[in-house]
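Re: [ENG-882] Designed sequences occasionally contain unexpected residues at chain ends

Forwarding the minimal case from QA. Structure tokens:
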């Protein structure tokens, strides 16, 4: 059969990261390429205890079809958790439980974009989101990242284009892939521009609770007083990604359309996973749980940074994240980044070439992404030394 695929999906390439993840099956490879949470932080005992109890006492309720918008107990528990430091639910907002926040990226672009519509994104940005937007026909306009978030002049130029963008996609905390945190000043300025040009913002915050340095910064959602900001809060990185549970908060009119999109997609998020998550949020001391996670991430990040300081040459630059899972390394011009990444794989260390995260992956890029949540301490020490030797070679 000679398949003739739709234009929408033909424009989306297999993720470079997924290709690198495949190599992780090779036990000899030290992978700094993944983007998974540290599996030693999964609260297995508690999740099993809750799950067993649900199967013993309420099996029928989780084995039956559920409500598209999500389990009512989970929505309540999640809102209580997400609202503990700031207001993320406004009078005009609704809440929906989604199958991971990846589904929020899909619904936002499915519900707002026609073929050729523009989505503004940080450059570089999370590949899964960029591919979701593209698969729904969107054209990406990337705005370069600076140390404190996107370039505001370039953002305003993009907002002034004759074709009005549909929304701006942002990851303000410890961004994937750069680890950069958008400053409060920039969050306020971005929101002011969104308001001026009446363009929506999709604020993706899967890493906010993995902060291990400096003080938290208010979300853009908390600044919103017009219904312009949609907030994506994933439970993947703070509980477990395999359960596929995230929370979408946004204006009720938009959420009503996303509910229709969900009905045509997966009907509702897995009922068992939702009920377990609800009880986990209600029964566990979340501050204590998050403190434990932050301690693990902090230790691993600091170890990787220390080893990089020791082994990487002084003409390399890298970000120092306040949380999350990623460090973004920029090589000096004397080195060719794609050849370096290839060489690293030959020496059994995987990192992700930075151009994979750009709106156009043909752009020149000297950077690569390193993940510190997945490798063990020994792998961090060994892998960074190998990369350092290659840089100095
Ligand atoms: C910035 C960002 N957003 C969303 C996701 C997807 O998360 P989820 O598991 O909730 O679909 C990821 C996963 O790596 C991510 O890095």
């Amino acid at each position: 059969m000679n398949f003739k695929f739709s234009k929408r999906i033909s424009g989306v390439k297999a993720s470079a990261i997924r290709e690198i993840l495949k190599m992780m099956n090779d036990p000899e490879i030290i992978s700094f390429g993944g983007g998974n949470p540290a599996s030693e932080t999964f609260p297995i005992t508690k999740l099993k205890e809750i799950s067993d109890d649900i199967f013993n006492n309420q099996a029928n309720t989780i084995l039956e079809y559920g409500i598209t918008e999500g389990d009512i107990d989970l929505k309540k528990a999640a809102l209580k958790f997400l609202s503990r430091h700031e207001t993320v639910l406004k009078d005009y907002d609704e809440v929906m439980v989604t199958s991971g926040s990846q589904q929020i990226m899909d619904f936002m672009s499915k519900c707002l974009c026609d073929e050729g519509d523009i989505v503004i994104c940080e450059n570089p940005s999370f590949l899964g989101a960029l591919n979701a937007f593209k698969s729904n026909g969107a054209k990406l306009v990337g705005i370069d990242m600076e140390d404190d978030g996107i370039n505001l002049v370039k953002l305003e130029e993009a907002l002034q284009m004759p074709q009005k963008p549909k929304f701006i996609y942002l990851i303000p905390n410890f961004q994937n892939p750069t680890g950069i945190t958008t400053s409060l000043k920039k969050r306020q300025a971005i929101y002011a521009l969104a308001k001026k040009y009446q363009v929506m913002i999709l604020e993706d915050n899967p890493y906010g609770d993995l902060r291990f340095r400096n003080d938290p910064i208010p979300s853009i959602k908390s600044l919103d007083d017009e219904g312009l900001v949609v907030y994506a809060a994933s439970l993947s990185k703070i509980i477990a990604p395999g359960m596929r549970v995230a929370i979408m908060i946004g204006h009720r009119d938009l959420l009503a359309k996303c509910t229709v999109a969900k009905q045509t997609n997966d009907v509702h998020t897995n009922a068992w996973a939702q009920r377990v998550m609800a009880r986990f949020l209600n029964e566990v001391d979340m501050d204590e749980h998050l403190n434990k996670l932050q301690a693990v991430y902090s230790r691993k990040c600091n170890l990787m940074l220390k080893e990089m300081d020791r082994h990487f040459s002084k003409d390399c630059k890298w970000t120092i994240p306040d949380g999350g899972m990623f460090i973004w390394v920029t090589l000096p011009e004397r080195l060719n980044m794609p050849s370096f990444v290839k060489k690293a794989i030959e020496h059994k260390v995987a990192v992700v070439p930075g151009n994979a995260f750009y709106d156009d992956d043909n752009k020149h890029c000297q950077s690569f992404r390193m993940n510190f949540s997945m490798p063990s301490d020994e792998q961090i020490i060994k892998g960074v030394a190998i990369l350092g030797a290659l840089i100095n070679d």
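QA comment: On inspection the terminal residues look reasonable. The pocket of pyridoxal-5'-phosphate is lined by residues 35, 100-102, 126, 128, 171, 176, 204, 206, 234, 236, 241, 246 (CB under 6 Å). Proposing we downgrade this to a documentation issue.
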